[in-house]
């Protein structure tokens, strides 16, 4: 009788759209708008995972009152999340504890189960090893390729086009130490095209080729990003912070993003734009971590565990970016991670160690160092020098606040005007302006990493740089240390060029960061600070030389002594500006001291970093990454800020006083059709389950996605489920009249312990609960009766409203 009844399925439109997405086991394989070709071969559709298995636990024609419970066996997709949704940290951690408890109990039963238990415990360390090896290898490849392509703008090696300028002249027999950058094997473009390197025409040819190569590299970078992987643009750190907080952005850490980001990062750095590769290397390392997670069930099936791996991968990314493994771990802890247990700290340290070791084995710069601008200083600093170091800190804070405000204003203009519709033209225009202004000045023409290396350098007798063109008024020097000397013509010329470089870097970086190409901010910020620091350091050096009898100098700086190290000022300035932009403190100081290999300079670095943060915080509370998170409307709940307003849960919950009633499901009185109607008419991510609409007594909470999958699975596995089948969430089946269709038990997808607060709970406590437990939603009750619901989005909107910001800027669920 009931077999002839109307067997309408769930709304096919919404189900088809659900089918077209990848399994939520994958964080990575649904790409951006232009990458739908990967959906066919990366992940089988959900229906492919649900095999046409005709066995079921329900009844047939002769057992019309038997219940149907298809959830004794796990259903693919249940317990996973849609794109642009937040994970449930509490549920994920609970599932991992259950899994671990089951493995531990089984390990006592047989040797095979014991081996499985040991391999499960070891899998985390193996995963860290693989992440470190892959991240270090990719970083070495990026470093070598970028170095070669940067030199390609100026010329080519006739002995082998794959050699960069430095490697080309290494084995040359016709090069002197003073002119070690000039060898017959290396030909500029004017030598190749018009057979001469002298004269105005040769200069114009080299100029033209420099700009042409820069435009070509930039065009390739932005085109690849636009066509194949829209998520490969930017630094990636704001999005990674958001993902680590529990948000899901599918495709952001996928294999296409990794491939395109690696290629375009080389092109973008080589184009000469004012950007760095350090921030994007964190994104690259996190992509490696996410992809490798799919080799291990423990991490593939648990979003919270996967985020522990991504935290460690971020540490490995900074480790290879700066050659600073400890600084990488602290960066992950201080700047990007949301949940960082002690176990993750150890594993982050191991991943950073392996990544640094791998990069050291590759030796991309040929100097046995992990970065191009590694330096060693030997001169101690004096207490009086804290004054100029603090001045550099003030400059760094001012520059950081200025940069954040102007860059965010420009990015907002890009998002809200026609400018954002033409990313290729924008990149080409900025590249052309940068290249045209950069070529005449040798300090802007060289790569930013080489510039920082030059500025950090402590001048020796054999240095041929203009920054080391001092007048030598001495006969001998002790222990290889040179006394302070009067500046020569080259130093004064370099000062003017550096001043112009500083102005160009300050202005052009504002427009470069945020374009649709991979772009990091660490190196441009460090360059601005290093230039300011070197200028101040040379000024202090000359002041000490000509006025060593002044009271501030005579007690510690005698004539002929090596008192001031301009390179140290450059390093302190670099730390100050990077701290002003990112608001990093502890990790920044450790990264900088790992770069220099000297513990005695920690105090100057700490003084500059703290001053810079205080000044920048006084002018604006957000760092650049937090500002971009807010600009993009990501649902990131900042753990560092206090909520100081005296509002209550009832002021924030939905529904409000004049709103329609809260949409709920009852525990044992709704049919499949009723539930499908509720799902099709609403867009909510989940529904509270109550005893009855009259009592409003809370039973639990069920997710929309789990409902859709479970109902669809039941329809596929048994013909008996029809629109009039009763769905119940209780332990036992409700009494049913004879000859009714089988009931459908969905108790296993019901969260029986949802977090609840009363309507009079202060919002500061609610915000704290959301922050510390990583909740998606919290139910509001009054005397045990359900009143409403507060979601993470509601909390973020309320915080924005209290801060007099636009609450509708929170774009995602």
TrEMBL record:
Catalytic activity, reaction form: 2 chloride(in) + H(+)(out) = 2 chloride(out) + H(+)(in)
Biased composition (Polar residues): 11-21
Keyword Cell wall biogenesis/degradation attached: no
Keywords: Antiport, ATP-binding, CBS domain, Cell membrane, Chloride, Endosome, Golgi apparatus, Ion transport, Membrane, Nucleotide-binding, Repeat, Transmembrane, Transmembrane helix, Transport, Ubl conjugation
Lineage start: Eukaryota, Metazoa, Chordata, Craniata, Vertebrata
InterPro entries according to UniProt: CBS_dom, CBS_dom_sf, Cl-channel_core, Cl_channel-5, ClC
Renumbered residue ranges of the record's region Disordered: 1-26
Principal localisation: membrane
Its membrane topology: Multi-pass membrane protein
Oligomer and partners: Interacts with NEDD4 and NEDD4L.
GO CC, any one term: Golgi membrane
Function, as annotated: Proton-coupled chloride transporter. Functions as antiport system and exchanges chloride ions against protons. Important for normal acidification of the endosome lumen. May play an important role in renal tubular function. The CLC channel family contains both chloride channels and proton-coupled anion transporters that exchange chloride or another anion for protons. The absence of conserved gating glutamate residues is typical for family members that function as channels.
Family membership: Belongs to the chloride channel (TC 2.A.49) family. ClC-5/CLCN5 subfamily.
Gene Ontology terms, MF aspect: antiporter activity; ATP binding; voltage-gated chloride channel activity
Database matches in PROSITE patterns: CBS
Pfam families listed in its UniProt record: CBS, Voltage_CLC
Domain CBS: 653-717, 749-809
Protein name: Chloride channel protein
Segments traversing the membrane: 121-142, 207-232, 309-333, 383-404, 424-441, 494-514, 521-540, 568-593
Species, as recorded: Nyctereutes procyonoides
Locations listed in the record: Cell membrane; Endosome membrane; Golgi apparatus membrane; Membrane
